[in-house]
Amino acid sequence: MEIARFAVVSFFLVISFFSSGDCNLVLKVQHKFKGRERSLEAFKAHDIQRRGRFLSAIDLQLGGNGHPSESGLYFAKIGLGTPVQDYYVQVDTGSDILWVNCAGCTNCPKKSDLGIELSLYSPSSSSTSNRVTCNQDFCTSTYDGPIPGCTPELLCEYRVAYGDGSSTAGYFVRDHVVLDRVTGNFQTTSTNGSIVFGCGAQQSGQLGATSAALDGILGFGQANSSMISQLASSGKVKRVFAHCLDNINGGGIFAIGEVVQPKVRTTPLVPQQAHYNVFMKAIEVDNEVLNLPTDVFDTDLRKGTIIDSGTTLAYFPDVIYEPLISKIFARQSTLKLHTVEEQFTCFEYDGNVDDGFPTVTFHFEDSLSLTVYPHEYLFDIDSNKWCVGWQNSGAQSRDGKDMILLGDLVLQNRLVMYDLENQTIGWTEYNCSSSIKVRDEHSGAIYTVGSHDLSSASSLRVERISVLLLILLLTILHSFRN
Ligand SMILES: *[C@@H]1O[C@H](CO)[C@@H](O)[C@H](O)[C@H]1NC(C)=O
Ligand SMILES: *[C@@H]1O[C@H](CO)[C@@H](O)[C@H](O)[C@H]1NC(C)=O
Ligand SMILES: *[C@@H]1O[C@H](CO)[C@@H](O)[C@H](O)[C@H]1NC(C)=O
Ligand SMILES: *[C@@H]1O[C@H](CO)[C@@H](O)[C@H](O)[C@H]1NC(C)=O
């Protein structure tokens, strides 16, 4: 039983231009958000201009689940290149680029325990693939200016470091992405657009491991380099998307486009932040508001609460974590707590956790709240062994490691809608195995989009294979006995 390796923290730290030469240039992507107000205006003007153009709703097929002792992540299937090839990529609202493992890469996983077939993207096998050089607009705007030492034949390289210490490096290519456009109720037609994405040449840390290996990461951040921003700027989609991550049946719903049903209440995004940060106001446990220092939610100190689908659990600084945990166990003073894998607080409990533990409600700006039930923040690692999903992000630090970060633990089983045009995010408790209604901007029609579970088809295949192997093994053993 191993949990730790699955507690993915993909909240991205920094994207930098990496050069194989001596020129060691590291640019923090955060820098380019200093002129944010102006660029938002530009986005809006741009969006109004292209209204009436071809804006469609997209249905992305999801797989995976958020259980920390299973995959601990959600992934989507996308098509790239000509002829088109399918890739399975982790869905991550905490980072800004799409990258996939490329042919010839160093330390790329060759197989995956998730029951999916991995594929390497090969620029030379796709007739529509083009390398992006360091003098092209995409490169200079991603790095906020001309690249020192750039000559026209040099590639535009990148390196992304994620919060769990893993990193990926490679170069950018432009090619077709093939997605499912919503054209009717539970009906889609293949559509394509041209986007720039990373061709992964070198992986390190967890990204090279086989345990939860995927073909890459699909950053759904709001920077211009993300797939959604690129598709929006070419007039293909609106910068609005929603996910409903299903940890009961696996997979769920992921759609680009405006969701009209269910209706969600929204809260504003913290301005000038690279990712999806919201203003938390209070935390209520067992119907009592936690008594916390007044500056704990101050956005100067912590830049808000990060919403990140690429992280499995939820993280709080010491000042919140300690009182939260003691209030959660207040009714259970006889429980024996022990630590598993040096970071998880675990205990044995025979009853129904929803009867023995309190609900936790987070309150946000504009009266949006999020209630998390005991069966969601506690996860079982054995029939009566439970561990707490809330994690400690540490003491106050200058580098901002003591963040408040809400991952899949609290996002799943809810419809979460990100409206980048209006700079809001909202959610509501929802059955992620059911369906939602989205608006097709092109025709104005409203269509139903259902849930998908890519993993069920593949794990079924794995199960069948192991049953076959077992039968084979039993047959062999049997023949030996006789
Ligand atoms: C993003 O793109 C828009 C329009 O395509 C542009 O006006 C804006 O300056 C860009 N923003 C950044 C931060 O580069
Ligand atoms: C992309 O779309 C164009 C126009 O609809 C079509 O001709 C082409 O075959 C598509 N390419 C892929 C890879 O689907
Ligand atoms: C964004 O705000 C506008 C104006 O308030 C509203 O009409 C629109 O429906 C909003 N977008 C979404 C996706 O709710
Ligand atoms: C969720 O929706 C699915 C599909 O409509 C349905 O089969 C299931 O019973 C629903 N679950 C709950 C808890 O309502």
TrEMBL record:
GO molecular function: aspartic-type endopeptidase activity
Keywords, sorted A to Z: Aspartyl protease, Glycoprotein, Hydrolase, Protease, Signal
Transmembrane segments: none
Active site: 92, 308
Domain of life: Eukaryota
GO BP annotations, alphabetical order: proteolysis
InterPro entries membership: Aspartic_peptidase_A1, Pepsin-like_plant, PEPTIDASE_A1, Peptidase_aspartic_dom_sf, TAXi_C, TAXi_N
A Pfam family annotated for this UniProt entry: TAXi_C
Signal peptide: 1-23
PANTHER family: ASPARTYL PROTEASES, EUKARYOTIC ASPARTYL PROTEASE FAMILY PROTEIN
Name of the protein: Peptidase A1 domain-containing protein
Source organism of this protein record: Cucumis sativus
